[in-house]
Protein backbone atom coordinates (compact mmCIF):
# COMPACT_ATOMS: atom_id res chain seq x y z
CA UNK A 1 0.00 0.00 0.00
CA UNK A 2 1.19 3.54 -0.64
CA UNK A 3 -0.48 6.91 -0.33
CA UNK A 4 -1.26 9.14 -3.28
CA UNK A 5 1.19 11.79 -2.04
CA UNK A 6 4.72 10.74 -1.12
CA UNK A 7 5.60 14.11 0.40
CA UNK A 8 4.18 13.34 3.81
CA UNK A 9 6.97 15.06 5.76
CA UNK A 10 6.70 18.26 3.72
CA UNK A 11 3.26 18.44 2.11
CA UNK A 12 2.50 21.35 -0.22
CA UNK A 13 0.93 24.46 1.24
CA UNK A 14 1.79 27.16 3.71
CA UNK A 15 2.31 27.19 7.45
CA UNK A 16 1.24 29.70 10.05
CA UNK A 17 1.64 29.63 13.81
CA UNK A 18 3.69 26.43 13.72
CA UNK A 19 0.78 24.26 12.54
CA UNK A 20 -0.17 22.84 9.19
CA UNK A 21 -3.24 20.88 8.31
CA UNK A 22 -3.21 19.79 4.72
CA UNK A 23 -3.30 16.85 2.43
CA UNK A 24 -3.69 15.46 -1.02
CA UNK A 25 -7.04 13.93 -1.88
CA UNK A 26 -7.03 12.32 -5.30
CA UNK A 27 -4.47 14.89 -6.47
CA UNK A 28 -6.29 17.78 -4.78
CA UNK A 29 -4.17 19.79 -2.38
CA UNK A 30 -5.83 21.30 0.66
CA UNK A 31 -4.46 23.65 3.28
CA UNK A 32 -6.18 24.59 6.53
CA UNK A 33 -4.54 27.20 8.75
CA UNK A 34 -5.03 27.43 12.50
CA UNK A 35 -4.08 30.46 14.62
CA UNK A 36 -1.90 29.22 17.50
CA UNK A 37 0.05 32.32 18.54
CA UNK A 38 -0.93 31.93 22.22
CA UNK A 39 0.21 28.33 22.15
CA UNK A 40 3.52 29.36 20.58
CA UNK A 41 4.12 31.99 23.28
CA UNK A 42 3.50 29.40 25.98
CA UNK A 43 5.94 27.02 24.35
CA UNK A 44 8.74 29.63 24.48
CA UNK A 45 8.94 29.10 28.24
CA UNK A 46 9.73 25.37 27.99
CA UNK A 47 12.59 23.35 26.56
CA UNK A 48 12.99 22.62 22.85
CA UNK A 49 12.30 18.91 23.45
CA UNK A 50 9.07 19.72 25.28
CA UNK A 51 8.02 22.15 22.54
CA UNK A 52 8.51 19.47 19.93
CA UNK A 53 6.57 16.90 21.95
CA UNK A 54 3.71 19.33 22.61
CA UNK A 55 3.45 20.20 18.93
CA UNK A 56 3.61 16.53 17.93
CA UNK A 57 0.79 15.65 20.33
CA UNK A 58 -1.54 18.40 19.13
CA UNK A 59 -0.95 17.57 15.47
CA UNK A 60 -1.11 13.78 15.89
CA UNK A 61 -4.24 13.80 18.03
CA UNK A 62 -5.96 16.36 15.83
CA UNK A 63 -5.16 14.43 12.64
CA UNK A 64 -6.55 11.20 14.12
CA UNK A 65 -9.73 12.93 15.35
CA UNK A 66 -10.37 14.76 12.06
CA UNK A 67 -9.97 11.45 10.22
CA UNK A 68 -12.47 9.79 12.59
CA UNK A 69 -14.99 12.60 12.13
CA UNK A 70 -14.73 12.33 8.32
CA UNK A 71 -15.22 8.56 8.54
CA UNK A 72 -18.29 9.05 10.74
CA UNK A 73 -19.67 11.53 8.20
CA UNK A 74 -19.39 9.23 5.19
CA UNK A 75 -22.42 6.99 5.99
CA UNK A 76 -24.50 10.18 6.13
CA UNK A 77 -23.31 11.23 2.67
CA UNK A 78 -23.33 7.85 0.90
CA UNK A 79 -25.81 5.00 0.74
CA UNK A 80 -24.30 2.00 2.57
CA UNK A 81 -20.58 2.71 2.00
CA UNK A 82 -18.42 -0.38 2.44
CA UNK A 83 -15.88 -0.55 5.28
CA UNK A 84 -13.23 -0.55 2.52
CA UNK A 85 -14.44 2.88 1.36
CA UNK A 86 -14.81 4.39 4.84
CA UNK A 87 -11.41 3.12 6.02
CA UNK A 88 -9.68 4.59 2.96
CA UNK A 89 -9.50 7.95 4.77
CA UNK A 90 -6.03 8.12 6.34
CA UNK A 91 -3.78 10.64 7.98
CA UNK A 92 -0.04 10.90 8.51
CA UNK A 93 1.61 13.18 11.06
CA UNK A 94 5.23 14.27 11.09
CA UNK A 95 6.46 16.92 13.49
CA UNK A 96 4.27 19.99 13.10
CA UNK A 97 2.49 18.73 10.00
CA UNK A 98 -0.45 16.41 9.41
CA UNK A 99 -1.71 15.20 6.06
CA UNK A 100 -5.20 13.82 5.43
CA UNK A 101 -5.60 11.71 2.30
CA UNK A 102 -7.48 8.91 0.57
CA UNK A 103 -5.30 5.81 0.53
CA UNK A 104 -4.22 4.30 -2.79
CA UNK A 105 -4.69 0.56 -2.30
CA UNK A 106 -5.62 -1.94 -5.01
CA UNK A 107 -5.38 -5.09 -2.89
CA UNK A 108 -9.18 -5.57 -3.05
CA UNK A 109 -9.81 -4.27 -6.55
CA UNK A 110 -10.09 -0.69 -7.70
CA UNK A 111 -8.61 1.79 -5.24
CA UNK A 112 -11.02 3.99 -3.25
CA UNK A 113 -9.13 7.09 -4.35
CA UNK A 114 -10.14 6.26 -7.91
CA UNK A 115 -13.89 5.97 -7.47
CA UNK A 116 -14.12 8.63 -4.75
CA UNK A 117 -12.61 11.21 -7.10
CA UNK A 118 -16.04 11.99 -8.56
CA UNK A 119 -17.52 12.30 -5.06
CA UNK A 120 -14.80 14.76 -4.01
CA UNK A 121 -14.59 16.82 -7.20
CA UNK A 122 -17.90 16.09 -8.84
CA UNK A 123 -18.12 14.81 -12.41
CA UNK A 124 -17.94 11.25 -13.76
CA UNK A 125 -16.33 8.35 -11.92
CA UNK A 126 -13.60 6.25 -13.49
CA UNK A 127 -14.58 2.90 -14.96
CA UNK A 128 -14.44 -0.18 -12.78
CA UNK A 129 -12.42 -3.22 -13.83
CA UNK A 130 -15.54 -4.97 -15.11
CA UNK A 131 -16.38 -1.94 -17.25
CA UNK A 132 -12.84 -1.76 -18.57
CA UNK A 133 -13.04 -5.45 -19.51
CA UNK A 134 -16.33 -4.90 -21.37
CA UNK A 135 -14.86 -1.89 -23.18
CA UNK A 136 -11.80 -3.84 -24.32
CA UNK A 137 -14.06 -6.47 -25.87
CA UNK A 138 -16.07 -3.73 -27.58
CA UNK A 139 -19.19 -4.71 -25.64
CA UNK A 140 -19.70 -1.53 -23.60
CA UNK A 141 -20.43 1.50 -25.81
CA UNK A 142 -18.43 4.69 -25.30
CA UNK A 143 -19.91 7.01 -22.69
CA UNK A 144 -21.69 4.15 -20.91
CA UNK A 145 -21.17 2.49 -17.54
CA UNK A 146 -22.72 -0.47 -15.73
CA UNK A 147 -25.56 -0.55 -13.20
CA UNK A 148 -26.85 -3.67 -11.39
CA UNK A 149 -29.64 -5.47 -13.20
CA UNK A 150 -31.56 -7.09 -10.33
CA UNK A 151 -31.76 -6.32 -6.64
CA UNK A 152 -31.75 -9.97 -5.57
CA UNK A 153 -28.12 -10.36 -6.64
CA UNK A 154 -26.80 -7.40 -4.65
CA UNK A 155 -24.72 -7.66 -1.51
CA UNK A 156 -25.65 -5.77 1.64
CA UNK A 157 -23.84 -2.69 0.35
CA UNK A 158 -25.90 -2.54 -2.84
CA UNK A 159 -23.18 -3.84 -5.17
CA UNK A 160 -23.35 -6.79 -7.57
CA UNK A 161 -21.95 -9.93 -6.00
CA UNK A 162 -18.40 -10.51 -7.17
CA UNK A 163 -19.00 -14.16 -8.08
CA UNK A 164 -21.81 -13.27 -10.45
CA UNK A 165 -19.74 -10.54 -12.11
CA UNK A 166 -16.90 -13.01 -12.72
CA UNK A 167 -19.30 -15.64 -14.12
CA UNK A 168 -20.97 -13.12 -16.41
CA UNK A 169 -17.72 -11.69 -17.76
CA UNK A 170 -16.26 -15.15 -18.29
CA UNK A 171 -19.47 -16.29 -19.96
CA UNK A 172 -19.31 -13.54 -22.57
CA UNK A 173 -15.54 -13.88 -22.99
CA UNK A 174 -14.62 -10.59 -21.34
CA UNK A 175 -12.37 -11.86 -18.55
CA UNK A 176 -8.75 -10.86 -19.00
CA UNK A 177 -7.21 -12.64 -15.99
CA UNK A 178 -5.73 -16.08 -16.64
CA UNK A 179 -7.68 -18.90 -15.06
CA UNK A 180 -11.21 -17.57 -15.34
CA UNK A 181 -11.57 -19.04 -18.82
CA UNK A 182 -12.37 -22.29 -17.00
CA UNK A 183 -15.84 -20.87 -16.38
CA UNK A 184 -16.57 -21.15 -20.09
CA UNK A 185 -14.82 -24.33 -21.29
CA UNK A 186 -16.13 -26.54 -24.07
CA UNK A 187 -17.30 -29.02 -21.44
CA UNK A 188 -19.28 -26.43 -19.54
CA UNK A 189 -20.77 -25.07 -22.77
CA UNK A 190 -21.88 -28.55 -23.69
CA UNK A 191 -23.51 -28.96 -20.27
CA UNK A 192 -25.37 -25.65 -20.59
CA UNK A 193 -26.48 -26.57 -24.10
CA UNK A 194 -27.99 -29.84 -22.88
CA UNK A 195 -29.89 -27.92 -20.18
CA UNK A 196 -31.17 -25.43 -22.72
CA UNK A 197 -29.30 -22.59 -21.02
CA UNK A 198 -26.75 -21.80 -23.75
CA UNK A 199 -27.08 -18.63 -25.81
CA UNK A 200 -26.40 -19.16 -29.51
CA UNK A 201 -23.58 -16.60 -29.62
CA UNK A 202 -21.69 -17.35 -26.41
CA UNK A 203 -22.54 -20.99 -25.72
CA UNK A 204 -23.14 -19.97 -22.08
CA UNK A 205 -26.15 -18.60 -20.20
CA UNK A 206 -24.68 -15.09 -20.42
CA UNK A 207 -24.90 -12.75 -23.40
CA UNK A 208 -24.95 -9.05 -24.29
CA UNK A 209 -28.23 -7.88 -25.72
CA UNK A 210 -31.29 -5.68 -25.25
CA UNK A 211 -34.44 -6.23 -23.26
CA UNK A 212 -37.42 -6.99 -25.51
CA UNK A 213 -39.63 -4.98 -23.15
CA UNK A 214 -37.57 -1.90 -22.25
CA UNK A 215 -34.91 -1.94 -24.96
CA UNK A 216 -32.22 -1.55 -22.27
CA UNK A 217 -28.84 -2.93 -23.33
CA UNK A 218 -26.76 -4.95 -20.90
CA UNK A 219 -25.54 -8.37 -19.87
CA UNK A 220 -28.32 -10.92 -19.48
CA UNK A 221 -28.52 -14.49 -18.17
CA UNK A 222 -30.75 -17.32 -19.40
CA UNK A 223 -32.43 -18.83 -16.35
CA UNK A 224 -34.69 -21.34 -18.10
CA UNK A 225 -37.14 -21.66 -20.96
CA UNK A 226 -38.50 -18.18 -21.70
CA UNK A 227 -36.84 -16.86 -18.51
CA UNK A 228 -34.10 -14.28 -18.78
CA UNK A 229 -32.79 -11.90 -16.11
CA UNK A 230 -30.69 -8.77 -16.38
CA UNK A 231 -27.30 -9.02 -14.66
CA UNK A 232 -25.95 -5.61 -15.69
CA UNK A 233 -27.57 -2.67 -17.41
CA UNK A 234 -25.61 -0.32 -19.65
CA UNK A 235 -26.48 3.26 -18.69
CA UNK A 236 -25.18 6.69 -19.76
CA UNK A 237 -22.20 7.64 -17.61
CA UNK A 238 -23.71 9.53 -14.65
CA UNK A 239 -22.35 12.85 -13.45
CA UNK A 240 -21.85 13.08 -9.70
CA UNK A 241 -22.04 16.14 -7.50
CA UNK A 242 -19.35 16.69 -4.87
CA UNK A 243 -21.00 14.77 -2.04
CA UNK A 244 -17.70 14.52 -0.15
CA UNK A 245 -16.21 18.07 -0.21
CA UNK A 246 -13.11 16.87 1.61
CA UNK A 247 -11.47 20.27 2.03
CA UNK A 248 -14.60 21.88 3.47
CA UNK A 249 -15.37 19.00 5.82
CA UNK A 250 -11.78 18.63 7.02
CA UNK A 251 -11.52 22.40 7.55
CA UNK A 252 -14.69 22.49 9.61
CA UNK A 253 -13.65 19.60 11.82
CA UNK A 254 -10.08 20.87 12.21
CA UNK A 255 -11.40 24.26 13.31
CA UNK A 256 -13.36 22.53 16.07
CA UNK A 257 -10.77 19.96 17.10
CA UNK A 258 -7.39 21.73 17.03
CA UNK A 259 -8.22 24.42 19.65
CA UNK A 260 -9.49 21.71 22.02
CA UNK A 261 -6.26 19.75 21.62
CA UNK A 262 -4.19 22.91 22.15
CA UNK A 263 -5.98 23.56 25.47
CA UNK A 264 -5.48 19.93 26.42
CA UNK A 265 -1.73 20.21 25.92
CA UNK A 266 -1.72 23.52 27.87
CA UNK A 267 -3.07 21.60 30.87
CA UNK A 268 -0.61 18.74 30.38
CA UNK A 269 2.31 21.21 30.43
CA UNK A 270 0.93 22.96 33.50
CA UNK A 271 0.31 19.83 35.59
CA UNK A 272 3.54 18.15 34.51
CA UNK A 273 1.93 15.18 32.76
CA UNK A 274 3.59 16.15 29.46
CA UNK A 275 7.14 14.86 29.62
CA UNK A 276 9.82 13.90 27.13
Task: List the main descriptive attributes of the protein structure presented here.
four-stranded antiparallel beta sheet, five-stranded mixed beta sheet, elongated, 276 residues, 20% strand, alpha+beta, 37% helix, 2 domains
What does this structure look like?
- There is one protein chain.
- With 276 residues, this protein is of the alpha+beta class.
- The protein has two domains: 2-122 and 242-270, no CATH class; 129-236, no CATH class.
- It is built from nine helices and nine strands.
- The chain has helices at residues 37-43, 48-77, 83-86, 112-115, 117-121, 129-136, 162-171, 186-194, 246-270, and strands at 2-3, 20-25, 28-32, 89-94, 97-104, 144-148, 206-210, 217-224, 227-236.
- The strands form two sheets. Strands 1, 2, 3, 4 and 5 form a five-stranded mixed β-sheet that branches.
- Helix 2 (48-77) packs antiparallel against helix 9 (246-270).
- The protein is elongated, with a radius of gyration of 26 Å.
Amino acid sequence: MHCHDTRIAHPPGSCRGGFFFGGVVVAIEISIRTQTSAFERALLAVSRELREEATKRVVGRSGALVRRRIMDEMPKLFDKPTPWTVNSVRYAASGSQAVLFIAYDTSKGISAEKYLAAEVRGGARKNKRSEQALELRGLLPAGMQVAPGRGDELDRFGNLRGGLVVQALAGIGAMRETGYAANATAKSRDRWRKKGLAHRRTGTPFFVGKSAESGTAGVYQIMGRHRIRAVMHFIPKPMYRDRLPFETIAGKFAGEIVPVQVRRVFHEIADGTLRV
